Amino acid sequence: MTSLARALALSIGQLRDPAIRRVLFKTLGLTLALFAALGWAASFGFQAALEWAGLADGSGWGALLAVIFALTAGWLLFRLVALAVLQFFAEDVVRAVEERHYPDEAALARTIPFAESLRHSTGATTRALLANAAALPVAGLLTPTGIGAPLVFWLVNAVLLGRELQDMVWLRYRTEATARAPLARPTRFLLGGAIAALLAVPFVNFLAPVLGAAAATHLVHRRMRSETL
After folding, report:
1. Domain map (residue ranges) of the chain
2. Which of 78, 81, 94, 160 is the most buried (most CB within 10 A)?
3. How many CB atoms lie under 10 A from the CB of residue 125?
4. What confidence score (pLDDT) does residue 175 get?
5. 3-state class percentages of the chain: helix first, strand second, coil last, to nearest 5
């Protein structure tokens, strides 16, 4: 836990790094643009549905329903979309952390081709969607408890995020000789759990994906260093 706390502290301290801020603005901007496009498309869909039902009266109900839909989708899907977007810029975060803290290792890293990044991003998003969909029935049963449903989703996403954040760093160094994941499962779970919790906090959730990628960089490199000693 101490190593995770230190990794997060170092990541927060590097938020002022221009390279990190550029990634933060790009991921946030693209994520919000995607949800804006979703709301725009939904407004036409709701308006068409109202017209089909004979309820279109020019009162703006279609636009209102679209706004409610976009806000609800944003609350439910923000972490999935933000992390999917981050996959394309993760290398910039990892490189910025490596240049400051792990310059020797950075010289050995490979550049991940766009096709491979797309494949990993698609796979991560698909796993997240399927896992969260599978958790829905359990969460529904636990909704009356108040805490049960959020806890189920936190547990699911802690496992998923730990793996995806590790791979953002590890894939730059993975070879046949280093095919075993560098982070132990408890460490991955703690990392994923911390970021999943941050993603549930309004406004802080904008920073969470970048903080997660930066913290994973510290954890993976410290682990790889310890294995070479």
Report:
1. 2-228
2. 94
3. 17
4. 62
5. 85, 0, 15
